[in-house]
Amino acid sequence: MTVEILPLSGLSAAEAKQAADALLDLDVGPDRLERLLVLDDTALLDEHASVYQHIDTANRVEKLLCVTVGPRAGAARTLELPGNLGGVQGWPVLWVSRPAGINWRVAKSAVANRHPGSTPTALDQHPLVKLVLVDEMFDRLHQKFLAEVPGRVASPGLWLAGADDEAATFAAALAVAIRRVCEPGPGSDGPFGDLLPARAGGASLSESGPFARYLARIAELDREASRVLEKAGGLGGVFKRGDSGVQRYVVKVGEALTDLRDLIVQVLRDASVAGTGGAITANQRDLVRNAGLEFKAEAGSRHPSRTAESAVEQSLVYRTVARAVQGGDSIPLVAKRLTATERQVTRHGSASYLPEVEKRCQPALLARLADPPLRLSRHAAVTEARRELGLDEASAAAQALTDLVLAVANREWSPTSVTSRDLAGSRAALDGTRKALTEHASMAEGARGGARGARLSRLGDSLLPVLCDLVLHAVGLELASPSASGTEALRAAHDRAAGMLAEWTRHVQAHGVADRPPFASSSAHDSPHVIEDDVAAVREAVLYPVRDEMWQLCAPADLSALDVDAPPVSIRFASRLNREAIIGTIPGDEPVWTSAGSFAGLLRLVPLRAGVAQSTWGTADAGRPAVTES
Amino acid sequence: MADMLRFRRVTGEYEEVAARVDDAEFRAGEFLTARTVWLEDGTPNGRELRQHRPVGGDRRADGYARLDNEVLAGRQLYQLGDWSGYPAELVRLHGDESTSADPYALLEPYRGEPLREVGANLFDDEFDKFVTGLLTGLCWLASAGIAHRAISPDTVWWDSRSVQITDFSRSAPFGTARTPVGGSWAWVPWESRPDTCYGTVGSADDVWAAVRLIYFVRSRGEDLDDLDKLTETGLAQMFNGLLGRVFGPPESRPTASDLIQYGLRRPHLTPSLADGSKPLIKGRRSFLGARARKHPGAEVPAEFWDDISWTRSRWATASPADGDG
Prior knowledge:
- The structure holds 2 protein chains of 2 kinds.
- Chain A is α/β, with parallel strands linked by helices.
- Chain A has a domain at 202-305 and 347-413.
- Chain A has 21 helices and 18 strands.
- Chain A has helices at residues 13-24, 49-58, 127-132, 135-148, 166-182, 197-200, 210-233, 246-270, 282-290, 308-314, 316-326, 331-345, 354-360, 363-370, 382-389, 391-413, 420-443, 453-480, 486-511, 532-542, 579-582; strands at 3-7, 33-41, 61-69, 79-82, 93-96, 102-104, 113-114, 153-162, 203-205, 238-239, 293-295, 380-381, 550-552, 569-575, 592-594, 599-607, 613-617, 627-629.
- Chain A is rod-shaped.
- The two termini of chain A are 33 Å apart.
- Chain B is an alpha+beta fold.
- Chain B is globular, with a radius of gyration of 21 Å.
- The N and C termini of chain B lie far apart (54 Å).
- The relative contact order of chain B is 0.10.
- The A-B interface holds A 276-277, 335, 339, 342-343, 346, 420-421, 424-425, 427-428, 431-432, 484-490 and B 112-113, 118, 120-126, 158-161, 219-220, 232-234.
């Protein structure tokens, strides 16, 4: 809110001037005085006339409204005003002759009834003043006075319903949404399958590479051996003769398997990187490729023209985190899953798998294949003969070695595999964001903005898509420009998230809660879900007939000053939060949609009868000719 | 407005100097509070320090005891080296006032943030620095003959580059009888817990909590509740199986130096005293050599090297006598 208050009530002329001077001073006062609300006593208006002149001549104030409190002085029938107030040129005046007011309808024969409830003793806490302090209300009042209120002086009447204060309700609903996102929720805390090396690595054997050639040779020799065995075994598949020449093929299977194993050992040893975070060198990459391994191209690398940000959005880690967060997983859960994933992608160096080669292709097997039995068991079936010769084991060993080399390739060598640095950075970004969010929510603790729990919960739901965007934006920024350390990533994400929260709050203040802040993606748009129950009272208050009985801030004795024949000027108002729900149901002028304040309803301005308000120049300024304007 | 502070510098001389004091107080471990002071000692903008004082009220007596520990540890640690050689892994005492009814310690500001806040987010290369920094810090402590006795994510700080062990308010010199340590059992070894406290403080006391802290960081913020997790997270392998003994009785527990030398197998990271230790080892080795010439076959006394805590270990294959010291 930008409305400045100048309280002159109870101040002597000198004190009032001092207060005005302080406000108008370019050095110590506010930077801008677009809207000034002066609170004064009716009885002191004359004494303060020079202050109003001073305000005018200072050329600092764009719009001024005066709320003057108290009845007309003594037995006077007129309301005496300084020349700058009322009339055809002066600033508008809301005359509150009795702050506690009366219940009254606009009619000649209407009598004053007691208005129930208490009224704050401090004028700046009065509902009227709180209402006028809302920028949108101030502007509409000012405009209405100038265009529609004769003499620019009126008695205000109010019909109010409690309503959502948009700013406070947004803060409270955001806190609800934050709790939903930040509290550990249910769900699997296992690793993200899509990020594990087996799925992300994209390794395969190139068709013409040495690995594939050895495997093909083993398979071919194996088939040949089986063919010989079958031929020797006759139609019944029973192997009757010991020497059929199959041994030649068995030895060759063993040689091919040995070559395959030796190649794997060499690559595992020579393409190994010590430590957990290192990447293989160009030479090592060539070695791996020359051995016959290839990797699925990284999706993003096919689009070099993309911006860094969109490249990040294409990254597997980002997409996986985005799916989880948008799917309703809480930040702690996603962080936990990233940690579980990280444990399974950590690189240990390919040399650490060398013992596994020995297990999968044992030297004893190679020795057996190198020296097959010259005579096989009599009447052995082909299947038994294969087993006896070690052919089945050789085939299984070749498959096991292939599985091993692909697993190692995916985890240790793949350029498309997820790195533990990316996962740790994403996790740090999530943790930093969560910290900023929970700090923000704890500051909003207790604020409800007038909304009930169920409504807050619905509003919180409507904010979730944008909140998820905020979280993902922080993760995306970390992935796009990785921090040098975990602490730095944590702090950067915290600061970014805090900045986005502030930006979002400012955005809501300026454009309403339904409008998307700049960081939100185009798909994240969900208007606050409002049900009829939430707005019934607001609609009723806004539609209240303008001449009916309501709270008129006028003393019974001053009712005679009001012009009941003139049509009262009405200003309907409601929180911008309810705009979508009620805009189509209000006839006449569009209501004022307030961005702050917790009221909805109707403000009516009953003008004064002609001649009652008199704006006079000169009583406080002896040098200026007295001019009266009514 | 400046106050006058009169205190004894850790170097021994008394100093009286004007100081600006920030009245905002914050907790500095159990029973102590801290506030920031800037000594007007010629340092541009004043030398920023933390003034630790006992809490008021019922626990003030406990606060005095904690402050005493902090001051005694700070003075003892100062002996490790002059200001330029002071180990970065340990928080540094600037001075203290221990004679008045309102005693205090002046400490250099801690670096970074507690691992409780940032420990779950260290990158791999940071983790390595953290592990070696923590163990190196404990080696320095052992060399001063002090056990910290409260190693935890709250007392060990991290600033992206290095570890800092803070809060010596529960520290005790080696050889003193262990007193019970309260607080979360996740960070107190059983030999120091109120119900099972026994024995004397020694060089392996801090290792129990230190390894749990290493797990805390490695697992990204989890407490160690199952020793199998040391294998799952690769820590058992990283320390070449030495961690199995960490959670046993303190008598058979490896020291921080053992973990560096025979666990990580990076003996070059083991800190050495700037003076004293190497000549001592050299001198004793020469003594042993002379004795062996005079009395061939005479045994070396079991405790001969014990006061040089990190250069001799039950896991060592060679004693300092075999090396170059």
